[in-house]
Amino acid sequence: MSWCLSAVVCITLIIPCINGESWVTANHGTPPVYTGLAPMKSGWSTKLFGVGNGNLQERYYSADGWIWANHGAPSTDESVASEPCVMYDGKLFIVSNKGRLFERYWSTGSNSWLWVLHGKALGSEKLRPMCACRNLYGGRVFVVGINSKLYERWWSYTSDSWQWRPHGSPPGTTIGPSAIDTCDADSGCTENEVYLVAGNGYVYSRYISAGNPGTPSWYLVGKPSGKTAWSVRVGGGIFVTTVDNYVCERLSSTNWICSRPPSTTSTPYRTTTLSKAVQVNNCAKLDGSAKYLFVNNWDDTTTSGVFQKPVNIRGKLWRFKVSGTSHNWVYHGTAAPCCSYYRPTIFMSGSCPKAFFVKSNGNVLEKYL
What we know:
- InterPro entries: Quinoprotein_ADH-like_sf.
- The protein has no helices and 31 strands.
- It has 369 residues and is mostly beta strands.
């Protein structure tokens, strides 16, 4: 389904045995990409989409091996800026550098990828570079304006067209700066809702009842006791990062379990990013059943003073295993002194997990079993 094929990148493989797990590291080159990667399940394989230098980049597997495809930008004077969100095979959404929402979809009629401008919601001057998609009841895309309000782009069965709907912000607070998230079909989630961290450090969801358009309501999801949430990831569970670099899973409205990688400190604050979680039950190369995530945080060497900064911004990569209330961290190395990581991506490939990582120099890496 890709229209622009680049040369196949020669992939370098590194196969260490870490904590009894034989993860293979593959280097996918530097197209470049400067966002996290959004997976799109397509038949027997999974494609990945990210953004670099204002262009939408696709990584997919063909009979010739792994190939990069450059989808370009919507126009010569408007580039793409956000990590994409995938609605389903052949359709994704993305926010431009001008704060407008675009759709990229595969047209069976023209046998090519096409751009569609969705613009921005009435009352929002521009959109932040973030979006979240849900393929339920016609399709939903959630975005946040620079006014810190939530908006929805939804497909109306009645008018047979896309419509905007404002959702405002959680009662008594605003929407924080971190990305919003929805759960995906792979996690078994059937609810139509979007999750976010508010300016007060609590997690909220905007739940929309079944139907088209459905009735929306705000719900307080909560936060770990004594901590301030920073970002949220949903899929295989609700996980948050905190401002002091803990990763916490919500077990119930009043019960969160938290931990952070060994030797990780509270400063620099807000430097931990994480993938969604995947439930692994029957992977022959992993023991037992558990949830798996990959987590990135920064080097803990900082300057002194009130405004502390990392001396060398180097991404540390961790495999995070959650089994009930047990947390297990395994260190997977540090990026070269040049680099940190964007938030990791993990998905199931057959019965085992596979993960992709983007360095801040545009380089893309993969880990698989």
